[in-house]
Amino acid sequence: MGYLCDFCGEQRSIVYCRSDAASLCLSCDRNVHSANALSKRHSRTLACERCNSQPAFVRCIEEKISLCQNCDWTGHCSSNTSPAHKRQAVNCYSGCPSAAELSNMWSFLLELPSVGDSTCEQGMGSMSIADDRPMDSQDPQGKDNVQDTPFLVEASEDVDKSQVWMKSLTPVIDPRFQNVDQAAGSTSSAMPKVAFCFKVFLSGAKGPAVCEDDSFYGDFSMDEVDLNIENYEELFGVACNNPEELFDNDGIDGIFGTKNMSGSNCRGAYAAEGSSVGVNVMQPAISNAASADSTISCKTEPNLCFARQTHSGISFSGLTGEISTGDYQDCGASAMLNMGEPPWYHPLGPESSMPSTSRNDAVMRYKEKKKARKFEKKVRYETRKARADVRRRVKGRFVKAGDAYDYDPLSPSRSY
DNA sequence: GTCCACAGGGCTACCACAGCGCCAG
DNA sequence: GTCTGGCGCTGTGGTAGCCCTGTGG
């Protein structure tokens, strides 16, 4: 028996919205997040099917269950029963993706029992990222929305298609990292190397050649995604040789924090390759902290970080290099910094030897950025703003025209 | 462990006034 | 039904002051 949607209270909840801190069925997810432009930007992912109070970040292929960090730890890392389970990263999304797009993103979605039920299926069928057509549009013959059929047929016939396509948009589930427990000890680098595997179909518009069925991908084109070729260069720089450039100069809020992947606000992920650091991912308490953080801080800045979560199998290939411990601590840890150490922090580990000054600098830069973002304000009336911008003040308060003032936005001079 | 002082950050009220909506004539 | 004038409300930015939290003695 699953948990019920926080919104309708009728359907089983499927996805988790960090911004709303709510578990929703697909239908309500669609309804709630199509309300306005801001809600469309909410980053959602599958809800943890175990606790249902946290966003899932991996899916256990063996158990066919989506798990949050905490439950993943509880179920896989802290027990001997299933440490070798293969797990797949769960991608997050924003906007109003179609059923096909969701099935692309989560091929295992077909396994979910409630996806096929009437309400949610309808909700999914009406989903569209571009939202450029009526929700319940039907063709003149009265057939179902074109998105529905491919979702049920194409995906079931050839799930690999969707997986291949997803690889073009998101960090790839690299088979080498599918089960890091098996690979543990196979490498010996002292410093954790970070393998970036970020396959982008620069050519184009729709998707890989293997997926030429336009109907399958419907309205989803690369034009709607930030990752076009221009953005690729923007994101990675011309040379793309330096992984550090993938992150901002402060190592905290880089492109993965501000640029969308697959149109989502989801922070990208990377995995530490090799060495023992990839095995013991986090301690239970730390995992809890991370989960708590994901609930609190990620409301405004959703992120996922798979640093050292090598079992989650995220990697970026094609760009390989080393980054400093500090940088990769900070990456994706922007929210974590508010609550102390990031979840993969090992107090006694060699990685903790990052110079405190650089870390503090990074924290300070992050806080400044966060502060700047926080005070972003949407002005409803530009005319009033323009007027207020030129109005004279005394101690911050507006004064009558002609009265003495101590602050003039147009001039540093004072009237007295 | 408890108490106190201090520092720092967050939040909010305050101000004038143009523009808007509403209502009566 | 349409137009006009009056009235009340809203929102805009910088600052002071209050409140809360964290830190050190």
TrEMBL record:
<protein>
    <submittedName>
        <fullName>Uncharacterized protein</fullName>
    </submittedName>
</protein>
<dbReference type="GO" id="GO:0008270">
    <property type="term" value="F:zinc ion binding"/>
</dbReference>
<dbReference type="InterPro" id="IPR049808">
    <property type="entry name" value="CONSTANS-like_Bbox1"/>
</dbReference>
<comment type="similarity">
    <text>Belongs to the CONSTANS family.</text>
</comment>
<dbReference type="Pfam" id="PF06203">
    <property type="entry name" value="CCT"/>
</dbReference>
<keyword id="KW-0479">Metal-binding</keyword>
<feature type="domain" description="B box-type">
    <location>
        <begin position="1"/>
        <end position="47"/>
    </location>
</feature>
<keyword id="KW-0677">Repeat</keyword>
<feature type="domain" description="CCT">
    <location>
        <begin position="359"/>
        <end position="401"/>
    </location>
</feature>
<dbReference type="GO" id="GO:0005634">
    <property type="term" value="C:nucleus"/>
</dbReference>
<keyword id="KW-0539">Nucleus</keyword>
<keyword id="KW-0862">Zinc</keyword>
<dbReference type="InterPro" id="IPR000315">
    <property type="entry name" value="Znf_B-box"/>
</dbReference>
<dbReference type="GO" id="GO:0006355">
    <property type="term" value="P:regulation of DNA-templated transcription"/>
</dbReference>
<dbReference type="InterPro" id="IPR010402">
    <property type="entry name" value="CCT_domain"/>
</dbReference>
<keyword id="KW-0863">Zinc-finger</keyword>
